[in-house]
Input
Amino acid sequence: MDEPTLDVVTVGHAVVDVLAHVDDALVAAHGLAKGTMTLVDLERSAVVYDSMPPGIEVSGGSAANTAAGIASLGGTAAFIGKIRDDFLGEIFLHDLRSTGVVYTTPASTSGPPTARCLILVTPDAERTMNTYLGTAGELDADDVDPALVAGARITYVEGYLVGLPSAEDALAVAVEAAHDAGRRVALTLSDPSWVALQRDAFTALLPSVDILLGNEAEAREITGESDPEAALRGLTKTCPVVAITRGAAGAGASDGNETISVPAEPVTDLEDTTGAGDLFAAGFLLGLAREKPLEACLRLGALAAAEVISHIGARPQTSLAALASDKGLEI
Amino acid sequence: MDEPTLDVVTVGHAVVDVLAHVDDALVAAHGLAKGTMTLVDLERSAVVYDSMPPGIEVSGGSAANTAAGIASLGGTAAFIGKIRDDFLGEIFLHDLRSTGVVYTTPASTSGPPTARCLILVTPDAERTMNTYLGTAGELDADDVDPALVAGARITYVEGYLVGLPSAEDALAVAVEAAHDAGRRVALTLSDPSWVALQRDAFTALLPSVDILLGNEAEAREITGESDPEAALRGLTKTCPVVAITRGAAGAGASDGNETISVPAEPVTDLEDTTGAGDLFAAGFLLGLAREKPLEACLRLGALAAAEVISHIGARPQTSLAALASDKGLEI
Output
């Protein structure tokens, strides 16, 4: 077996975010559950957009954010996900490649436009997302390069793909290519309402998952356990490594041998929690890929998450490698 | 003559900005003069974009920024400028209308795409712009609604239109409609290198201009005077009201009766000077439209400029009306 050439390859939706600060009333007026993601069609997307104040556009997408975070930490990452050959796709491609992430999934030349996610950021810095999937929802098995997957220590799949009929084959190819090469597969639960909606598909996938990530609400949803410690113990029966984030209360992880918790990194200017979980995943997975102790993996995750919630947008705006070095965290 | 229904109508390029923080070396590598605007074709735009780190996209365009600033100050404004019916155009339209600005110029359904401006922001917060004009460069006489212009106390034209053969007829219609209705025409010099390039067109237009705005470098370029006070005196021989901004040194204005200077508003977090002149114009012109004393007009301009340079992007991110009220400045 060849030596891996990448730390992590991530698989997910290629999305450009449209973010605006709004009040709680707007989220309620659209009947949205704060803190969750809702899939919307173009028409519904237009209705929500019309109600939003001026926004900013920045590249996003959960798994792509994680890949960008790994690159910013000094790791090597690739991303697999689908754009259209339109201006939004051009922005996504530019922003990801210019971070150093390997991104070679061919752009569609026909069909729906590049995905966009309308993100309502409320005064509590919580984000509520409305995703029009567009071309991102057409990722298929041909888009997954088995050699790319086989060359990465960890293949990380975003939970938003789980249960989408269109993504089923792509996921199967990725999981098989990783395991055939003796690599590990990681999954994030992504969103509590998505877990509830796609419970069967998640349950079917979990036995193939070597590293599971999620937040408290997602862990509660998949296990039925309201206590995060109990949820963590329950999940480690299926997945060898499990990490659960708890927002301002920090994060915990178990690898069967030890169970460890770390506090959240202090944040003075909490502005927008978009990307918090994605960037935690970046630090945690890079730590695992580099065979760091579990506590160091958690601390890298906490550090990356703290940077991204201190500004609007879900990608790092400063070198995470420099921040890690300042904290004495070696990559 | 009917009472005016709007404070200001602004005419200019409809542009979405792509902003990224870069180092001085990148600006130099492209042979760009820091602090200026260069028109580029699509090919050249792609070359510059490829060299840029991840960016953010926000609506811009000099005159459109001014209209958004006037709306944020609590004034009434309209904008005339051309977009394509593409996603970038949709962003521009949304972001402007959601501020309350009247924007009715029909979008092109064919031809080049919506304009984009690649903005390199250096560590000194200075911005260097590369504009691909696209559809914005096709504004013509039919796009200018004489009734809209006649209904505004002031018609404000961005200097980037001056000397463009395509915009000549549109400018002539706007100036004539304003003066026929007994309204005032305002012009910004926009950019020192543009003034140098289009000197004859600017010189021909100045006798029709009732209110002239510019920064020191632009005033020096058009008058040949290196002393801002002398440039101000020289320009008031042609234009009844003249204001010259001097960056951190504040701004001065003359209306023939009095010549006044105000200091710059203190800014603790200077991040990106993009839009400083546009937002100064917003405050200054709204003050004139509401017949405020010259000093109050200058102070409103300084206040609006200070807000926009404290963050990335050229549109206000907080209510300028509230900021003005905090400072005891009545609109």
Observations:
- The mean pLDDT of chain A is 96.
